[in-house]
């Protein structure tokens, strides 16, 4: 079932403003006030003369004459004449696609209903509506080339409520109802669409296939009209009624997607008499008030429309003006028939009607043809055109020897090929991408986008994996950081990384998860912890029963405690009077604080060396951090590699029976798209993994180098301090006068001997441990020790 549509898009015709046409129709009467009411010969002007002092005159006593001019005056005209003058042209324009409205206005009993509906018992006296219906179907019959659909709606506005006069009809399935719930709602609401066009929501729009069906609908509605007895007229309509004919037409022969949809509103307004005149009471008084109110609002809209400066038109004040929005100052050819009852008794109502009618003439409308395009028909048309254009294009290509140009959408296989090319291009494996068509360029862009997104995703995944691992292992600061740093065995990672890439069975790095007995170089801190635990096999000053220093300082503190005591830990015996971080030496009867002197030395004589030491340590720390992050990245990548491999294996396991069956006749390995994507991802992550491993190697070399530098500068600082201390305080070695073993001139040498003995023991144990656990680190360790010894002996 097709549906009637309101014009949503501007029509193609040019717009031109037209004022509302106003025609005066008189109700025939033998008591016509011929002395007071006169019409000009051109049948367009009305002159009213009421001499002063006439009894009953309500009008301004000062005014005796009124002149009005209209489009036409139909005095005692037949129904046929009225239709020819008022209805015919508008119906014609509706057939062309313009909206039309004819409304009857006037006092009760002036002949509005007679004009619009007519006398039903006499065919000759039928009114505008049945004549319009008949005309519309005649017009349709004269247009066999057009497929036309006629729908009809009939509503009544009674006491400011909209009633569907066709709601009682059974829904035959071929009509149209503007609400989903059908036409059963008692009162309907006016709604506006996006284009500002008003609709009565839920109004029944019944299809009429011929004149008879349309007339049946008119009569059905007539019987439903609210009728109240009235003193002026036994059967007086107390409501506004709007009978609407909707036309939808399209050509049967050409451009059938073009649909013309127009409508004709035929409006019978309620009587415009004043309440006082009708002597109404009770319910009828209420009715009269509503009628009066809505006609007042109608008048306000008319006044607003006739004032060109007014921007706001108060359509929403009443249902009537809201429903007739299009007809008043909108997209419509509008004509008003002002019915007057030209008897002396009704002269004041006549003047009131003529005044209103005059104002109505000032209202301008902009009627336009309502054309829409049927989307389904449009699609069909475009499909046809595309087909023809493709044929043409193919012909041009073959003439230009361009046979491999693809204009159709790319298939998945082709897209994969393009993706390969794009990746090769991004990796510089291909210098250029071959361009053959615009569609292909678009596909390339899509693939670039996909590749970019995929890389972004992988990067995010990697980052979140690293973050997770960091969270699992604790924050990268303080003890947690150093603990992770201890566990992060860079050398082993590189070793594993070299071996593991590309091998399914390779295991990932186990940052923070390595078993306690796993191989790993016990670095400074781990050794330190073991020493502090007191059960280490590695001897140092403290577990040799010398009391020892509080040794929990961070490497970067760089004070005496660190610089000096670390040497003491490893090489020097602790003096009996050592307590905490201070080392006291007797000098000229006073205790000289070696620690204090060392602090002074760092700030003065040894300041430059100390500055270099601090710089080197900072660099070392930074490199270690980078190495640590790289280690985490490598671990994360390895986890991903393992995961992808597992997925691929799982897929292969599932696909094996099918693949065997499918490739029974050939030796081809069948890889589906999903597996291809996994392999592709695996390749990418392996590449990331290798890159990180390479970076780690290089950073590790830098760490080694920086460590050497730190140790070297530290050794230099210490030995220079020792020399300076000796020179200043005349102490011949640390053991002199301190109650240590040895003594005399070579007391320093003896002390050094002792130191070396302990150091050698320590070194030997460390070497043994390291050769077992991580032989790769031996060169580094040996070199460091040799340098330290050299520095110490200088
Ligand atoms: N042009 C006319 N020729 C013959 N009879 C007419 C004509 N105009 C009106 N009448 C008669 O006058 C009476 C009142 O007319 P009508 O009901 O059309 O008035 P109305 O303006 O519609 O009143 P209301 O506002 O109460 O509905 C009717 O009996 C109608 O037949």
From TrEMBL:
<keyword id="KW-0547">Nucleotide-binding</keyword>
<dbReference type="Pfam" id="PF00225">
    <property type="entry name" value="Kinesin"/>
</dbReference>
<dbReference type="GO" id="GO:0008017">
    <property type="term" value="F:microtubule binding"/>
</dbReference>
<comment type="function">
    <text>Essential for normal male fertility and for progressive motility of spermatozoa.</text>
</comment>
<dbReference type="InterPro" id="IPR056524">
    <property type="entry name" value="KIF6/9_C"/>
</dbReference>
<feature type="domain" description="Kinesin motor">
    <location>
        <begin position="19"/>
        <end position="363"/>
    </location>
</feature>
<keyword id="KW-0493">Microtubule</keyword>
<dbReference type="InterPro" id="IPR027640">
    <property type="entry name" value="Kinesin-like_fam"/>
</dbReference>
<feature type="region of interest" description="Disordered">
    <location>
        <begin position="498"/>
        <end position="568"/>
    </location>
</feature>
<feature type="coiled-coil region">
    <location>
        <begin position="438"/>
        <end position="472"/>
    </location>
</feature>
<comment type="similarity">
    <text>Belongs to the TRAFAC class myosin-kinesin ATPase superfamily. Kinesin family.</text>
</comment>
<keyword id="KW-0206">Cytoskeleton</keyword>
<comment type="subunit">
    <text>Interacts with HYDIN.</text>
</comment>
<keyword id="KW-0175">Coiled coil</keyword>
<dbReference type="GO" id="GO:0007018">
    <property type="term" value="P:microtubule-based movement"/>
</dbReference>
<dbReference type="Pfam" id="PF23735">
    <property type="entry name" value="KIF9"/>
</dbReference>
<dbReference type="InterPro" id="IPR019821">
    <property type="entry name" value="Kinesin_motor_CS"/>
</dbReference>
<dbReference type="InterPro" id="IPR001752">
    <property type="entry name" value="Kinesin_motor_dom"/>
</dbReference>
<dbReference type="GO" id="GO:0005874">
    <property type="term" value="C:microtubule"/>
</dbReference>
<feature type="compositionally biased region" description="Basic and acidic residues">
    <location>
        <begin position="559"/>
        <end position="568"/>
    </location>
</feature>
<keyword id="KW-0067">ATP-binding</keyword>
<protein>
    <recommendedName>
        <fullName>Kinesin-like protein</fullName>
    </recommendedName>
</protein>
<keyword id="KW-0282">Flagellum</keyword>
<keyword id="KW-0969">Cilium</keyword>
<dbReference type="InterPro" id="IPR027417">
    <property type="entry name" value="P-loop_NTPase"/>
</dbReference>
<dbReference type="InterPro" id="IPR036961">
    <property type="entry name" value="Kinesin_motor_dom_sf"/>
</dbReference>
<keyword id="KW-0597">Phosphoprotein</keyword>
<keyword id="KW-0505">Motor protein</keyword>
<keyword id="KW-0963">Cytoplasm</keyword>
<dbReference type="GO" id="GO:0005524">
    <property type="term" value="F:ATP binding"/>
</dbReference>
<feature type="binding site">
    <location>
        <begin position="106"/>
        <end position="113"/>
    </location>
    <ligand>
        <name>ATP</name>
    </ligand>
</feature>
<keyword id="KW-0966">Cell projection</keyword>
<dbReference type="GO" id="GO:0003777">
    <property type="term" value="F:microtubule motor activity"/>
</dbReference>
